[in-house]
Structure formats: C-alpha cells, structure tokens
Structure of Bifunctional hydroxymethylpyrimidine kinase/phosphomethylpyrimidine kinase:
Amino acid sequence: MTGAPGAPPRVLTVAGSDSGGGAGIQADLKTMLALGVHGMSVVTAVTAQNSLGVQGAWELPVEAVRAQYRSVVDDIGVEAVKTGMLASAELVETVAELLAATDAPVVVDPVGVSKHGDPLLAATALDSVRERLLPTATVATPNLDEVAQLTGVRVESEAGMREAAQAVLAYGPRWVVIKGGHLSGDAVDLLSDGSEEHWLRAPRYDNRHTHGTGCTLASAIAVRLAQGLTVPEAVAAAKEYVTGAIAAGFALGGGIGPVDHGWALTRGGPAV
C-alpha cells in the first residue's frame, strides 16, 4: 500500500511505553517527527518508568498487539517497521509472524534490559528472539549486553566486535549494528552483513543523560530506510542524529536524563 500524494513516509514502532518519555514508544515517535516521517505505534507493554529506573511493567495481551498492528498496516500501510521491548516469548513470536508477512524493511532492537539494568525481556523469550525475530530483521541493533545475552559472546574491546557481529548474523538478520557504546574511548559501532563492514565513530561526550539512545538509533535507522536510503547510508545518518541527541541530553528528575530528540529542530542538524 502506498501513501497519499504529499504524505510523508510512514514508519511503525512496535514497542513498550516509557512513562518518563525518554525511551520506548515515546522516544521512537519523537525521533520520527524530528526526522520528517509520520510515526505510528503498536504498544506492547506499559511501564512505570522515570529517570531512576523501571518501577513496573505490564505487557499487553497478544490479541491487543495483533489488532493494533493489523489496524495500522492494513489501512495506512508502512514503509519501515522498528521493534523494541517485546517482553515475552508469546509477544516475540506474534510480532515475528506479523513482520514476516509485511513487505517493508524491519529494524529489530532486541531490548533486553533498561538503561538502569532493569530486565525488559523474559529469559524464556531469548530462543524466540534468536529463532523467530532476528530472521525478520533488515537490521538488528544489539548493544554489548544484548549480544552477550543472545550469543554468549562478551566484547571487551573493539577487536571483539567483529566476532559479535558474526555471532548475531548467524541468527539470520541481513545486517547487524554492534553498538560499542559501553566500551571506553570513542563511541564506535560496527555495521556488518558478514562480508561488508562499516566502522562508525563519533566523539564520546561527557554527558550522563543518555536514556533512550538505543531506541533512538533504531528508530532513526528505520526512518532513513523509509526515506529510501541504503542500509549503510541509513545507519550512518542515524549515527549522526543520535550523536547530536546525546550531546544535547539534559537532566530530568533525579537520575539519568534523556537524549534530546529535538536537537536537530532547535539547534540545527540533520533533520528532514
């Protein structure tokens, strides 16, 4: 299905709600607006969450998730889909089934834990992520903790990122971005499809307010794919956007504040 003439590209996020507004569905929709597409959402879970952590999480019934997805895709259509928090094996498998039948690029952010270390994916769902969800991905975007959770590969330095990429690619995504944000030194990510590699580097800003970086990067990749960029182009553009958002991150509450999703609109940068 194509959009109406003059309508912006349509991007769908399938993820959990962050009541604090820094990550999850809220971060995804802010990113989509900032980068010039029409964002739509399928809420998979509701969290009680703030700058200090996650105080509670409640997943939605599978029927509610499926109904939201079908409602959007069957009428409005999508030009890219991004997934985030899916919580349970049942939700992972349901979403994977829906994605497999959708003709659009898919960006899978295999969310395992929050920025504060709170678990957001049941241990029993890991096999479903590996065997059902990752094979649907045009691009998968795990951080180093999620790489270890999914593959057992523990990355201690840049030298280990290539092994991590191969381990994730073995589960079937076309491309993987290994996010090296937890390493020291420059903020370096590795994009690979198993034969082609792109190393993306950016300065590491001395700013602790980085809540929502993973959601933001994955959403920005989905946006750029919907706008017609190739995967390497989309990831490079998304990296530039999220780097600016990190640099502009601000304090909120008593803990870790969010990145600034609107920095490109208010301070100049790679907007539409």
